[in-house]
Known about the structure:
This protein has a single domain (10-62), classed as CATH 4.10.640.10. 44% of the residues lie in helices and 0% in strands. The protein has helices at residues 10-14, 23-27, 39-42, 46-62.
Amino acid sequence: MALKKTKVCHFCVNQKDIDYKDAATLQKFLTPYKSIVAKKRTGNCALHQRKVTKAIKQARIMGLLPFVGGR
């Protein structure tokens, strides 16, 4: 049985702050249909996943990220 590689939180490792104005970083945590990717797939810790989710929602309201994606 192969061992799974443990994922580490991108924000804990890089000591990077989450900002709703940084659309390029937040784009990495969206699917092609623009729904938010679960922390199980991204590897974020619970604290940073909540902050990412809040920042994505705030960026959507500000018009920096789309609510829905194309086909």
